[in-house]
Predict the structure.
Amino acid sequence: MSQKWFVIVNPVSGNGAAKKKWPLIFTELQTQEFSFEFAITKHKNHALDLIKQAVENGFRKFICVGGDGTLHTIVNGILYITPAIFSEIEIGIVPIGTGNDWIKTYHISKDYKKAIEIIKGGNSLKQDIGKITLAKKSEIIYFNNLAGIGFDGYVVNKVHKFKNLGFLAYLAGAIVSLASYKKAKLEIKFDNILIKERTLMLLIGICKYSGGGMQLTKNAHPTDGLFDISHIHKVHLFNILGNLKGLFNGNITNHKLVNNYKTSSIDIKVLDSRKTYIQADGELIGSGNFKVSMIENAISFIVPVKKS
């Protein structure tokens, strides 16, 4: 088993910032005496193939140079491999993306030198991972941050038009989309709870932040074995505009229109013909019925040492 790091670079992350910064990151990895090989992705899911090949070549330590989407693809590439290997894998991240939401939970610096120092420190934490099973294709997708159906997915479908706005892309997409979005009737089942109504959106969180720094779930904890659920029946434009601060400090989850739950598995069915988008870690993954289950302590991520 190789002690080298395998570095995966997504050159289009951060609107192309990763491509510009990679020579500096490469030099800094050498300066901090990393032993590594690297590969630059050439298309959206190229990291899946790179992970598979790297694991076959004995690599167990990976560095993601990219944003939330790149990390999502790397996590999926690892979890598609035999479960016996999960416990051996470690992932560090040098964040270069639009939202950089996952790193906010762990306070990982966006300064590439500091991010590399964190990886060098080697402090690892085993995080829970969500497993989504899409009913249409029996396809499995994993997520490490947050998934959602309804308005959330609808906005992700629109947000690429606003990428030049950086972390405000999701907010701009939400405001533009609110007038045109039509709520779908969902059946949501978990534990002893059944919700059957037209729903604006359902959010399923593992970590705290999404949508460019918004806190849309109330009690997310990445290692407690439970999803943090926010169910929102409806919301009006004036509610969003009047609660902009609450979107980013988490107070929106205390609004009377938001119901909060904790569970380890959830089953969602779409009860009308309206197309409903599902997103995972800010990536569109499909539509229709799906189930979500928790894989506890699935993968080790390199994070800063928690201050006491």
In short: The chain has two domains: 5-122, 131-295.
